[in-house]
Amino acid sequence: MTYCMRSRDVTRWRRRRDDLGALSSWRRRTLELLEAATPPHPLDSGLSATIGLNEAYPGCRALRSRPPIFAVDDFLSADECARLRAAAEPMLHRSATAFSVSAIRTSASCEPPLAACVGLLRKVEALLPSVEASRCERPQVARYVRGEKYDEHLDGADPATDADAEAFFFGGGQRVATVLIYLNSVESGGCTRFGRLEPPLEVAPRRGMALVFFPGDRLGRLDGRCFHEATEAADTKWVCQTWVRQASMPEAVVTIARNLSS
Ligand SMILES: O=C(O)CCC(=O)C(=O)O
User: Fold this and answer.
1) Which residues neighbour 116 within 8 Å (Cβ) at sequence distance 6 or greater?
2) Share of the chain above pLDDT 70, in %
3) Does the domain spanning 7-261 belong to CATH 2.60.120.620?
4) 190-206 residues labelled b (16+ CB within 10 A) or e (exposed)
5) Complete DSSP assignment for 109-177
6) Best mutation site among 92, 228, 243 for ligand 1, i.e. most ligand atoms within 8 A of its Cβ?
7) Which ligand 1 atom sits nearest the alpha carbon of residue 178?
8) Please, what are the averages of pLDDT over each run of 10 residues along the chain (262 residues)?
């Protein structure tokens, strides 16, 4: 399995999948038109449908061009990191992969209250200008203590191999961007490692830094170069993940839009 999803999302999907059949083909057509109208990303002309990133965003630097992988230094302040950790800590439970707990992902995680994520979502919108917050999944926070890790995976779902891909796509489609923010710095261990790149890319957690990459393109095609893992933690490590989908998620539009305007 390459992704994680909450069981209440699956229930919701089963209830509404028939209603949304027509909508999905319409959405696919819209994405195809968008793709045809959009010039290639200057950093990666081979993958023309990657969503755009504002490279003028303060602290933004390219780590790789093929595939495009960016770091944004001080994306969150020390205070913002501390607040997210504090909001998440009482809610942590064993992280899941797809629909169950799995040995490949041994951290603890949760979805902190949306009120704690509003500033973060605004920054994601500024960094990825084509993305409205309604396309963002609810941010998650994960904590790894010594020895915990997340084995190699892609953040999206592959309909050819993942039995639950259709459920995963419900409402928003493929994951097209990952914004992974380190909520603390560590002395050693706990890197994010893209082991299929030549040479492999290993990113060490630095407080406030965001790592941005594109597991799928806007048409939902997965980018196998973006397989990555969280190597075993030595020191306790905290991250916050925000995943961007191809399209707005009907339920999220309401909750997130309300929170952003308050
Ligand atoms: O913690 C990390 O370094 C990576 C996390 C990750 O890959 C994920 O949550 O999908």
Assistant:
1) 83, 84, 87, 88
2) 75
3) yes
4) bbbbbeebeeebebbbe
5) EE---GGGTHHHHHHHHHHSTT--GGGBPPPEEEEE-TT--EEEE-SS--TTT-TTHHHHHTTT-SEEE
6) 228
7) 10
8) 47 45 50 48 44 91 93 98 98 82 90 92 92 87 97 91 84 91 98 97 98 90 94 98 86 47 41
CA-closest residue to ligand 1 atom 4: 230
Check if 192 has its Cβ closer than 6 Å to any atom of ligand 1.
yes
pLDDT in tens, 152-169: 999 998 888 888 888 888
Tens digits of residue pLDDT in 62-99: 999 889 999 999 999 999 999 999 999 999 999 987 65
CB–CB of 256/141 below 8 Å? no
Crossing angle of helices 78-88 and 118-127, rounded to 10° = 130
Shortest-distance Cα residue to atom 1 of ligand 1: 230
Which of 140, 143, 145, 192 gets mutated to test ligand 1 (max ligand atoms within 8 A of its CB)? 192
Q: Mean pLDDT for the chain?
A: 82
Ligand 1 and 155: CB distance under 6 A? yes
Rounded to two decimals, the pTM is 0.81
